[in-house]
Design goal:
8-stranded mixed sheet, binds S-adenosylmethionine, globular, 11 helices
């Protein structure tokens, strides 16, 4: 990846979660510092690459399911660097006119998303902080494609684990309150059964604090909404429409859910 002149304050010497995550997904938008952290974490937790790929499969499956249910607009919050398949590819396979806005706090992710989508009608990218729902929905780039009066699908995938339980609940509840009835919320987090492994993962990337949320946290965030079957479960199982009686036999996995505002 070459440094982009449009991006100010672009420090390639410090690992950055958008680019670290891009490496785990097999992307090329990352630098040596990102790759060093990403590879070290993947070595500490060999399930990590499966966790992030399962997460992407869930995001695309859940968004496509919202499109099948008639949702025509999608707000992907903390969307990361563009990857394939992206949310717009997944939902447009179902509903070709679906509108999608990608939102990320990271300048590099937002600039790349904008460049990728430059020619796409009904697609937009915004650089904004997802923890400020009112500002996100009022952002001019978001307003290009998202009509706040119409039901929407709000994607909070692999981002709420950067917030503590109360802050994550407040963010989810604010989006749910701002969105009209019939809107979908899609959430996922990386979850560790093995707390010693969780501690090692945190120590490997201290610049990016990470909370180990569980099913009870997700249930609290989605309070008042109707869970879409199979409910709160592991990502692979969600994609296959199953809710396993036991957690998967892995030290870490992606936990996820989709819910609809009644
Ligand atoms: C682990 S990646 C997840 C990417 C994508 N959502 C997915 O599930 O595949 C987390 C992304 O969230 C972004 N992010 C973290 N905190 C954010 C915030 N407060 N507002 C907007 N984006 C944020 C990071 O820059 C990064 O690109």
């Amino acid at each position: 990846m070459a440094a982009d002149p449009e991006i100010q304050g672009f420090d390639t010497s410090r690992p950055n979660i958008a680019r670290v995550y891009d490496w785990w997904l097999g992307g090329r938008d990352n630098f040596a510092a990102d790759r060093a952290v990403a590879a070290n974490m993947a070595e500490i937790n060999p399930a990590l690459v499966h966790m992030v790929r399962d997460n992407r499969a869930f995001v695309c499956a859940a968004a496509a399911r919202a499109a099948t249910a008639g949702i025509g607009q999608f707000l992907d919050l903390g969307s990361g660097l563009p990857t394939q398949p992206s949310v717009h590819e997944a939902v447009r396979a179902v509903s070709p006119d679906a509108r999608v806005c990608y939102v990320d706090l990271d300048t590099v992710a937002a600039v790349h998303a904008r460049a990728l989508l430059a020619s796409g009608a009904g697609l937009a990218a915004a650089e904004a902080d997802l923890t400020r729902p009112g500002e996100v929905l009022a952002h001019p780039d978001v307003a290009q494609v998202i009509d706040p009066a119409q039901p929407m699908c709000i994607v909070l995938a692999a981002v709420l684990h950067f917030l503590d339980t109360a802050a994550a609940k407040q963010v989810a509840a604010e989006y749910a309150a701002l969105a009209p009835a019939g809107s979908w919320l899609i959430v996922s987090v990386g979850h560790y059964e093995d707390l010693a492994l969780y501690d090692k993962m945190c120590a490997a990337f201290p610049a990016q604090p990470y909370r180990n949320h569980g099913a009870a946290d997700i249930a609290a965030w989605l309070e008042g909404l109707e869970l879409v079957p199979p409910g709160i479960t592991e990502a692979n199982s969600w994609v296959r429409g199953m809710s396993p009686a036991e957690p998967p036999g892995r030290a870490g996995y992606t936990l996820c859910a989709a819910a609809v505002k009644p």
